[in-house]
Recover the amino acids of this structure.
């Protein structure tokens, strides 16, 4: 009941004319970011972040989160009309969305995708509304050992549940932790890994790193692939929109299954991309029309879109309640909170209720507004992709470099953005995940401080991380996830040997 009263108060904050205008502007910017290949939600939010430094935190987070939702919707537009996923999490939508568009069912595909995405996002917001207060109250029991254990659990979750190669994920995490140590040690005051560069005294800005990794790196990859835009008609027919909406209740089982997958992958570090592929695979295996997947089946659009948006939304829950982001974009937003002077975690709910519940209320509004705006602006944003990439690409590069410079008005940051861009390109070419690196850069200092505080408190004894049931459980889960790929491989080998032994011999 208290959460409901807090939510009503949040709506009184979010429903001001200024905040609604910010929601509309953020969604439109997000759709543009999602439509343009090479940008994407993390980089779009990063580029917009410096513009929010003069805003109050409530308005700033509403603008950034609205851009996030718009970017997710924009990625679906290009996936269906051009077979070009504007977001990595929109790749699975191309499997059936583009065939539907080629069959002359573009309006049906777009309407199905957008309504499914809106429902998935609202499910994620409902989960945040119901669970955020409880998780925050529970987290008040945490001290430095518990916080280190939860950070370690987040890192290990990427290895055990992330979907990428475990060794490559570990390398990405360790690289992020190394970058997080650059600059002045917050405990001893000593300089670390600056190599004589005075610009590194303040450390490596995660904003500059994200601009390079997601923006410039993605563009370099796009240039190599010689991307060409070949789309189908983007005209929207009102009658087909209502027909698609009327057919959605027939897929209620798919909605429930995909929403459950999305919420789980959002709260854990699996993320929207893994959620969309997992949901598509489950839909093909268990769906009513699974045999038609890949041929232009609406259920093949519903499954990844619901999971994608429910995961993207619910990823903000661990960021707000525990200070552990569930996705790369949530990590960027968490960095924004710290820049604005706010500390993500359980105390945020008691010290800044206007901020937390204003954000949650705005999430309801922005996702509903996003569905309406994206349907209305599909022809406009789709026409942008008919501009030659040779024109769009350099513009995006210039925007990225300007964004890197504005972080601290330093030319050194521009060079760092380019260096991280090359690194992002190499990572993508070699299939190294980037999200764990960003997470480690954001949480590295916090994890190190929590570990060192725990060591000081215990006199250097590692047993403090097993000193009570709560921290022991968290550490146990972290160790299980860390070694999960190895354990699953061993189980597979043992079961394979048993199968061979029990097979009849000729």
């Amino acid at each position: 009941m208290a959460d409901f009263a807090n939510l009503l108060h949040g709506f009184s904050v979010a429903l001001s004319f200024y905040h609604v205008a910010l929601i509309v502007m953020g969604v439109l910017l997000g759709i543009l970011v999602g439509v343009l290949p090479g940008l994407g939600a993390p980089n779009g939010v990063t580029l917009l972040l410096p513009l929010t430094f003069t805003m109050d935190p409530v308005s700033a987070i509403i603008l950034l989160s609205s851009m996030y939702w718009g970017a997710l919707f924009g990625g679906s537009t290009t996936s269906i009309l051009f077979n070009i996923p504007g977001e990595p999490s929109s790749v699975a939508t191309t499997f059936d969305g583009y065939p539907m568009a080629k069959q002359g069912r573009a309006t049906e595909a777009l309407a199905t995708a957008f309504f499914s995405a809106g429902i998935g996002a609202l499910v994620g917001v409902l989960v945040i509304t119901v669970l955020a207060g409880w998780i925050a109250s529970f987290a008040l029991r945490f001290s430095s050992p518990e916080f280190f254990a939860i950070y370690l659990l987040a890192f290990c979750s990427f290895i055990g549940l992330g979907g990428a190669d475990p060794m490559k994920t570990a390398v990405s995490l360790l690289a992020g932790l190394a970058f997080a140590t650059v600059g002045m040690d917050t405990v001893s005051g000593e300089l670390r890994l600056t190599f004589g560069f005075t610009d590194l005294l303040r450390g490596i800005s995660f904003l500059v790193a994200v601009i390079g990794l997601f923006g410039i790196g993605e563009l370099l990859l796009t240039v190599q692939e010689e991307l060409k835009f070949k789309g189908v008609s983007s005209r929207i027919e009102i009658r087909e929109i209502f027909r698609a909406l009327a057919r959605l209740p027939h897929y209620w089982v798919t909605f429930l299954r995909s929403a459950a997958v999305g919420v789980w992958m959002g709260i854990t570090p699996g993320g929207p991309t893994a959620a969309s592929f997992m949901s598509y695979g489950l839909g093909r295996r268990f769906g009513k029309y699974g045999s038609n997947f890949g041929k232009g089946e609406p259920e093949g659009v519903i499954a990844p879109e619901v999971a994608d948006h429910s995961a993207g939304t619910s990823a903000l829950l661990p960021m707000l309640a525990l200070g552990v982001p569930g996705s790369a974009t949530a990590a960027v937003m968490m960095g924004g909170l710290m820049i604005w002077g706010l500390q993500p975690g359980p105390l945020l709910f008691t010290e800044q209720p206007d901020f937390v519940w204003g954000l949650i209320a705005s999430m309801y509004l922005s996702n509903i507004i996003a569905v309406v705006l994206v349907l209305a602006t599909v022809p406009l944003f789709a026409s942008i992709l008919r501009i030659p990439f040779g024109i769009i690409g350099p513009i995006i590069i210039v925007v990225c470099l300007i964004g890197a410079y504005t972080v601290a008005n330093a030319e050194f940051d521009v060079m760092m953005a380019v260096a991280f861009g090359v690194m992002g390109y190499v990572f993508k070419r070699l299939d190294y995940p980037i999200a764990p690196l960003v997470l480690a850069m954001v949480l590295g200092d916090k994890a190190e401080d929590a570990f060192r505080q725990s060591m000081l408190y215990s006199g250097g004894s590692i047993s403090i991380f097993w000193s009570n049931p709560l921290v022991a459980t968290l550490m146990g889960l972290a160790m299980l996830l860390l070694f999960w790929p190895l354990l699953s491989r061993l189980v597979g080998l043992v079961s394979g040997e048993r199968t061979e032994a029990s097979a009849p011999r000729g």
